Amino acid sequence: MNVPPRPNDLASFWMPFTANRQFKKAPRMFVAADGMHYTTDDGRKVLDGTAGLWCCNAGHNRPKIVEAIRQQAGELDYAPAFQMGHPKAFEFANRVTAIAPEGFDHVFFTNSGSESVDTALKMALAYHRVRGEAQRVRLIGRERGYHGINFGGMSVGGIAGNRKMFGVMLPGVDHIRHTHDLARNAFTRGEPEFGVEFADELERVCALHDPSTIAAVIVEPMAGSTGVLIPPKGYLQRLREICDKHGILLIFDEVITGFGRLGTPFASDRFGVKPDLFTAAKGLTNGVVPMGAVFTTSKIHDAFMTGPEHLIEFAHGYTYSANPIACAAGLGTLDTYAEDGLLTRGAELESYWADALHSLKGLPHVIDLRNLGLIGAIELEPIAGQPTKRAFDIFLDAYQSGILIRTTGDIIALSPPLIIEKAQIDELFGKLAEVLKRAA
Ligand SMILES: Cc1ncc(COP(=O)(O)O)c(C=O)c1O
After folding, report:
1. Which cofactors does this gene product need (predicted)?
2. How far is CA 398 from CA 415, 432, 437, in A?
């Protein structure tokens, strides 16, 4: 006999990237969100210090986005993505490439950051093949990189804990070293002075494998999920130079950095370095409807546009690529960003934000503070023999104190909606300081 599910039973849902047993003993539930705040099921307001998961850049419950979704659902709920189109897909592609850095005239839609990464890797491999360089099959990532959780992204990713359970992954992948250097760069405001030479690791990898076998290098221009590693001054330029020298494509994973997070529309605008392809997701639709994207240049796109016209040029895509409701959400998001000036608001607030973050220097267990745009990280000394425990306990205490923060390892990462006001920055860091002072 079937036993009917118990109402509000928490057992069935196997939660992603969550300590399931801990959560289900003491659940943390959001039931509503508006502006800068979540509301919990016990009626408390929690200040969103993380824009959800780095995605709600315009804050929550934004009328233009809500209305666009409502209207679209009643007008055209779904259209096949293969061999058929709908106007909002083209409108959104035009609007979003218009704010992309110059030269990125083409966009391929996916449903997440992970899918965007795998799409970009496949595009890079296929690009070389269609041009007659089919021997370029290797992909190079970076230690501590996060490129989502699908097999391609996991393989080029470099967070050991995300890889160790899942076998040998893609062949032909190698990694350059990460850029974290506490000894030389701790407590730097903005881009660290030291570490441009870490990019030269790419030459070592090229020498080892023969550069003519390498298809692409993928990095986050600023590594987010591993705990906010800001690129050292000149590092990305150096990577670009080495890629150019060897005919290797450079892919930036802008899933976190896209759409204003660093005070410019994209990280490549801020750093003045252009990749060949870049990924986006999260802020693309303000996190409201799942959607991702890969942006690329005419040079890459046009290389595929050969052969008989009835043939599919790139055998890749998803049932929900350019889903009408996602496109509508994206259009509402771009309108909201434009109206509120959010793609550059991070630059206006950056120095206030940095002052607030760096005021935590000297508090117990704090061994580094890092910032760029509206991102901040607080690195903590781990409890001996219990890595991640200190930061996790701080996360729980912060939640009880009315602020949502995110931890990865023993690093706290902050990335609020770009609508944050100065008083809310004060509140976020004021409450966090109290939590840090009482942390074990
Ligand atoms: C740089 C980067 N790439 C890819 C992803 C994966 O995105 P998703 O969780 O939407 O698959 C993330 C998610 O945090 C990310 O930060």
Report:
1. pyridoxal 5'-phosphate
2. 15, 7, 12
Count of beta carbons in the 10 Å neighbourhood of residue 205: 18
For residues 132 and 341, what is the distance between their CA atoms, to the nearest angstrom? 44
**Residue 119 beta carbon below 6 angstroms from any ligand 1 atom:** no
Q: What is the pTM of this model?
A: 0.97
The CATH number that applies at residue 396 is 3.90.1150.10
Q: Which DSSP string do the residues of 46-76 spell out, in sequence order?
A: EEESSHHHHT-TT-BS-HHHHHHHHHHHHH-
Residues 326 and 353 occupy one common structural domain: no
Query: What domain range is 187 assigned to?
Result: 65-340
Domain count, the chain: 2
Grouped pLDDT means (10 residues each) for the chain, 440 residues: 68 96 95 98 97 98 98 98 98 98 98 98 98 98 98 98 96 98 98 98 98 98 98 98 98 98 98 98 98 98 97 98 98 98 98 98 98 98 96 97 97 98 98 96
Whole-number Å distance between alpha carbons of 267 and 271: 6
- Ligand 1 centroid, distance to 289 Cα (angstroms): 15
Write the residue with the smallest CA distance to atom 7 of ligand 1: 113
